[in-house]
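TASK: fixed-backbone design
INPUT:
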């Protein structure tokens, strides 16, 4: 096991033990509420808000909001998925611990701790130690917002969130994150929306996307078969990595055969080079020979493992086989849609999600339906179809009014459409449900700024940074507002915070140079400008930013020094 994985598990284990007050090997609803509150000391939650967050955690990781509690393995998967930031939570609790009780259990020797870590790791990854968590963030929407992400309700990426800030999935499976998408952020001298969702080149059409069939009884049996409750598999490809359902011990010979296939695939993928794709193909053929639900399970679990390794093209093939083995079941189509989205096959993902909507039945798929609508909306938004995306976000909200991620997505889409008041209303509603939603604060700040409510926007960006100190976009946007309000010292502090998190963020360095000129620190400004030019790779985007700033400086009094400084780059 990699040393960083072992360290993460040690921290997670310490957090679990600290809040498992009754030592029953589960965190009850009350214990989870205590964990959420103590991980976010600056936020005051209402009982309703806490109950909603705890309910989603239990549904996502234990299969039901009425589950008896969150196990140690489920808490570890929550953090390893990227839903929570174990480093930040551990540091927060350890800091509070200096005034209270110790969070860190130092009783175990290093060797004992290593044995315990290995045991937990084996439980989680079923002898597949190559899977690691995403440590950079957002959102998915890298929700990292980084690579194609299917998370359960977020937008572009900004870094791992603490437990209460997490992009919790409503129930089981995932919500998408648009490829390359970012939260709406202000770049350069002007206040303009950040990265636009660019269409992704489509690949070859799928040869066979199963259509809804009539085998509803068998589909229902697969959901509630002998292997237990529906598996919660967050798929934030940047942060929410799916974990195979075989992380539970096999209970019969067929399950062992299924688990053996997954183990063989994990071993093949783990090796550098080799013909693992041929091995995956052969294993899919072997899985096809299994009977009924075992065939379905094997393909779903192999697809899940491949998704966790970001091997999305191969994951698509496994989920296609799972869907063929379960005609009439919406779940494999949902997972197939997620994999297609992650593989940048937007048109196919949209068709597959639509097929999942047709296949879904009530009451069996009541929890899954809002997720399908949300992920279809994200895929449509990534394709530039904002009106259709908003319709699906609204469908999800009609089915689940407390779906705060759907509200966040709706607000962000409305902002992109220019419906600023509607965006503020949706984003504020999301924050009422989850006051620790950093991305919602960030996008709310953008909408407020567009409405001319600069001070309110500053407060929103400040709240985002308070909830998630690693929220790069919020810090950058806040710095820009301070700079434009001639609060140059505060602006420099914000830009320095961004650069501490991302030393390659040349826009922060460029804007820092402008703020330093406002503080009459001409030499430091010159140095910052040169660094921005170097960090940008001398690209055209920087020159466009400089041209915009130069135009502003030339038309404003008292900014001749800035104009001259910028001229050195042009």
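OUTPUT:
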């Amino acid at each position: 096991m990699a040393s960083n994985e072992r360290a993460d598990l040690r921290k997670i284990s310490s957090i679990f033990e600290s809040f498992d007050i009754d030592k029953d090997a589960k965190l009850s609803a009350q214990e989870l509420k205590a964990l959420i509150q103590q991980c976010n000391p600056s936020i005051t939650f209402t009982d309703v808000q806490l109950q909603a967050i705890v309910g989603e955690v239990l549904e996502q990781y234990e299969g039901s909001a009425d589950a008896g509690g969150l196990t140690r393995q489920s808490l570890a998967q929550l953090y390893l998925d990227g839903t929570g930031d174990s480093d930040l939570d551990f540091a927060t609790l350890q800091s509070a611990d200096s005034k209270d009780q110790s969070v860190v259990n130092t009783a175990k020797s290093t060797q004992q701790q290593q044995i315990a870590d290995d045991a937990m790791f084996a439980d989680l990854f079923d002898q597949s130690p190559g899977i690691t968590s995403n440590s950079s963030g957002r959102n998915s929407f890298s929700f990292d917002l980084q690579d194609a992400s299917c998370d359960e309700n977020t937008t572009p990426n900004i870094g791992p969130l603490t437990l209460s800030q997490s992009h919790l999935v409503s129930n089981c499976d995932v919500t998408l994150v648009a490829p390359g998408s970012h939260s709406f952020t202000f770049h350069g001298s002007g206040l303009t929306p950040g990265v636009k969702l660019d269409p992704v080149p489509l690949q070859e059409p799928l040869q066979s996307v199963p259509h809804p069939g009539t085998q509803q009884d068998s589909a229902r049996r697969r959901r509630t078969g002998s292997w237990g409750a529906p598996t919660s598999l967050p798929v934030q490809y940047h942060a929410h990595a799916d974990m195979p359902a075989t992380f539970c011990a096999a209970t019969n010979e067929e399950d062992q055969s299924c688990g053996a296939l997954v183990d063989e695939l994990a071993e093949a993928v783990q090796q550098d080079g080799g013909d693992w794709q041929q091995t995956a193909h052969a294993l899919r053929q072997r899985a096809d020979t299994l009977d009924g639900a075992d065939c379905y399970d094997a393909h779903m679990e192999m697809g899940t493992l491949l998704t966790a390794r970001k091997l999305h093209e191969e994951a698509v093939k496994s989920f296609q086989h799972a869907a063929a083995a379960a005609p009439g079941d919406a779940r494999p189509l949902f997972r197939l849609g997620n994999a297609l989205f992650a593989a940048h096959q937007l048109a196919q993902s949209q068709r597959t999600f639509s097929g999942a909507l047709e296949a879904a039945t009530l009451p069996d798929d009541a929890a899954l339906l809002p997720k399908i609508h949300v992920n279809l909306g994200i895929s449509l938004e990534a394709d530039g179809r904002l009106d259709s995306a908003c319709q699906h976000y609204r469908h999800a909200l009609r089915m689940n009014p407390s779906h705060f991620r759907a509200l966040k997505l709706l607000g962000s889409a409305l902002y992109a459409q220019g419906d600023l008041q509607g965006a503020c209303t949706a984003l504020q509603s999301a924050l009422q449900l989850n006051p620790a939603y950093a991305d919602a604060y960030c996008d709310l700040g953008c909408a407020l700024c567009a409405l001319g409510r600069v001070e309110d926007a500053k407060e929103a960006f400040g709240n985002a940074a308070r909830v998630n100190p690693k929220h790069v976009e919020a810090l950058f946007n806040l710095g820009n507002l301070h700079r434009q309000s001639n609060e140059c010292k505060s602006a420099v502090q914000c830009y320095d915070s961004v650069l501490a998190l991302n030393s390659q963020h040349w826009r922060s360095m460029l804007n820092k140079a402008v703020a330093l000129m406002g503080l009459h620190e001409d030499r430091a400004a010159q140095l910052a400008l040169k660094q921005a030019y170097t960090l940008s790779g001398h690209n055209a985007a920087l020159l466009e930013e400089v041209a915009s700033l130069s135009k502003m400086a030339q038309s404003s009094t008292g900014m001749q020094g800035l104009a001259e400084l910028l001229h050195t780059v042009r």
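COMMENT: The chain is about 60% helix and 0% strand.
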